[in-house]
């Protein structure tokens, strides 16, 4: 059922892309509506800054609009979009690092190590929480950010992408151009290392 829906979505995307390539701005606006949120999530996962993530999401679709005439459809539109968003976010991250900008990544921390527990995560701080609980969450989030920063990029990136729930192992493998088993192994390694460092 999920695979059928995925193929249907890809077919719809191809139709929208074909129309947009012929100058149909309504079709392009529909692609932006469908996927700008995902571009934002990818950027936020890398940068941890809402303003930067919004900028990258916008830049992603500006770049897509310019490159659309040359898009041959060798990969799914979503894969192409993920790749552009990730590359722009990486560039922005490196620029921020060079400029000594602070990085405050907020991702959901995995709690357990088994594949079955992939969806068990820590919720991010809720403004409705009592001050003492909010402070505890903020402290854990701060620790997570610091430890995530220390992970090698090869482990950090697939973990961040997987914690964006719309990205499957298969999508990550295609985006990073590596084998499915490699993606799973890197994510598991990243989780283990984070757990060890955070004492979870």
Structural features:
Rna Polymerase Sigma Factor, Chain: A; 8 helices; 2 domains; globular; mainly alpha; single chain; 200 residues; Arc Repressor Mutant, subunit A
CATH first level of the largest domain: Mainly Alpha
Q: Indicate the mean pLDDT.
A: 76
Query: What's the structural domain tally?
Result: 2
Poorly predicted parts: 1-5, 101-127
What integer value in Å does the Rg equal?
Answer: 18 Å
- Main β-sheet: number of strands, strand sense, barrel status? none
Number of beta-strand segments: 0
User: Which of globular, elongated, flat, extended, rod-shaped describes the shape?
Assistant: globular
Distance separating the two termini:
36 Å
- Helix coverage percent of residues? over 70%
CATH architecture of the largest domain: Orthogonal Bundle
Structural class call reads mainly alpha
CATH names the topology of the largest domain as: Rna Polymerase Sigma Factor, Chain: A
Order of H and E elements: HHHHHHHH
| Count of individual helical segments | 8
Which superfamily, in CATH terms, is the homologous superfamily of the largest domain? RNA polymerase sigma factor, region 2, helix turn helix motif
Query: Per DSSP, what share of the residues sits in E-state strands of 2 or more residues?
Result: under 5%
Give a verbal description of the structure.
There is one protein chain. This protein is an all-alpha fold and 200 residues long. The protein is built from eight helices and no strands. The chain folds into two domains: 1-104, Rna Polymerase Sigma Factor, Chain: A (Orthogonal Bundle); 105-200, Winged helix-like DNA-binding domain superfamily/Winged helix DNA-binding domain (Arc Repressor Mutant, subunit A, Orthogonal Bundle). α3 (50-67) crosses α4, α4 crosses α7 and α6 (153-163) crosses α8 (180-198). The chain starts with a helix and ends with a helix. Mean pLDDT is 76; it is low at 1-5 and 101-127.
């Amino acid at each position: 059922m999920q695979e059928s829906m995925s193929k249907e979505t890809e077919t719809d995307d191809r139709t929208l892309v074909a129309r947009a390539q012929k100058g149909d701005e309504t079709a392009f606006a529909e692609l932006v509506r469908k996927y700008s949120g995902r571009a934002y999530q990818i950027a936020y996962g890398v940068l941890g800054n809402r303003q930067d993530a919004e900028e990258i999401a916008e830049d992603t679709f500006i770049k897509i609009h310019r490159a659309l005439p040359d898009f041959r459809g060798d990969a799914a539109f979503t894969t192409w979009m993920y790749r552009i968003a990730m590359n722009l976010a990486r560039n922005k991250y490196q620029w921020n690092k060079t400029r000594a900008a602070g990085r405050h990544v907020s991702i959901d921390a995995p709690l357990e190590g088994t594949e079955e527990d992939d969806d068990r995560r820590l919720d991010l701080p809720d403004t409705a929480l009592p001050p003492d609980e909010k402070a505890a969450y903020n402290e854990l989030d701060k620790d997570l950010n610091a430890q995530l920063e220390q992970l090698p990029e090869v482990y950090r990136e697939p973990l961040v992408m997987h914690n964006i729930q719309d990205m499957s192992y298969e999508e990550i493998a295609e985006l990073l151009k590596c084998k499915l088993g490699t993606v799973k192994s890197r994510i598991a390694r990243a989780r283990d290392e984070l757990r060890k460092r955070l004492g979870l």
